[in-house]
Amino acid sequence: MPETFEKVAIKITVNGKAHALEVEPRTLLVELLRETLDLTGTHVGCDTTYCGACTVLMNGAAVKSCTTFAVQADGAQILTVEGLEKNGDLHPIQKAFGDSYGLQCGYCTPGLMLSTYQLLERDHDPSEKDIRKAIAGNTCRCTGYQNIFKAIQLAAHNTRG
Ligand code: FES
Ligand code: FES
Cα–chain-centroid distance for residue 117? Predict the structure, then answer.
């Protein structure tokens, strides 16, 4: 019989929507997002904290939600890929990934877009070195990265206005 744990009450705001929930202490943030809140844009691509497919922003900082407990997000603001689109309009980062062919299977893409979001919040004109550093925690198995760099450069250009 599976062991059960006493649940813990948490409050969490995801993509601007407040939630009051009860979670087991062992529940991972990615499980909460995908299985409780049905936000399946956040992916799980490994079991070693390596790939970054699970990247979300917690209070503006990129975290790997596969190795963050849901209780650690108590009181936090979380941004997932679903929160980038506004009123049916894609975010400039999403448009740039499409326009630059910065994805193939798309499995890594939500995490890459959140890491890009964090970068561009801090630096509107990042160098290639800055971009490489910003996405060092995100692994893409398909693209060879060149179009991802182009997408991030285009996103930076478009968000500078
Ligand atoms: S799922 Fe691979 S780092 Fe989180
Ligand atoms: S587009 Fe397939 S893993 Fe990156």
Answer: 9
Q: How far apart are CA 54 and CA 107, in angstroms?
A: 10
What does the pLDDT look like over 71-104, one tens digit per residue? 999 999 999 999 999 999 999 999 999 999 999 9
Q: At residue 112, what is the residue type?
A: L
| Proportion of the chain in helix, strand, coil states, percent, rounded to 5 | 40, 20, 45
Q: Which ligand is nearest to the CA of 144?
A: 2
Please give the DSSP secondary-structure letter assigned to residue 41.
Answer: T
**What phi, psi does 130 have (nearest 5°)?**
-60, -40
Name the residue of 54, 107, 108, 141 whose CB sits within 8 Å of the most ligand 1 atoms, as the mutation to test its pocket.
54
Cα angle: 138, vertex 144, 148; to 5 degrees: 60
pLDDT of 160 higher than 90:
no
Question: Does the beta carbon of 103 sit less than 6 angstroms from any atom of ligand 2?
Answer: yes
pLDDT bin (cut points 50, 70, 90) of residue 45 is very high
C-alpha pair distances (Å), 124 with each of 155, 157, 158: 9, 8, 10
